[in-house]
Amino acid sequence: MTTTEATRTTTRKLARFTGHYVEMVAAMLIGMVALGPLWPSAWLERPGVDALVMATNMTVAMVLAMALRRHSWPRIAEMAAAMYLPFAALLVPYWLGALSGTTLMVAGHVIMFPLMLAAMVWRRAEYWH
Q1: For the chain, is the Cβ count within 10 Å smaller at the N or the C terminus?
Q2: What is the pTM of this model?
């Protein structure tokens, strides 16, 4: 008896790839809502700390979601880095007064989402199936 694995169409693979991305974004939103109240409000009044808290909340939830989906720890670490690095890098110009708190938060998110997508494209075998 021989078994053959059905090959998925490109459309189906793209749908699954997109689904992985949407799942991570949903997990991040859940993390912001669920974990946000755990932090002292005085911390959240400081934009730099607020940005790191938000990045932490999103990353914790996304790590849990990826672990539940049995992604490898190196891929999880890469995705966590893609989420944290924009905020960490933007803290320097924020501290130097070159960015406002609002710009820090918006730019961190604007950079984070394409970086996450880039990590997924770079590791297509993990997400494109």
Answers
A1: N
A2: 0.81
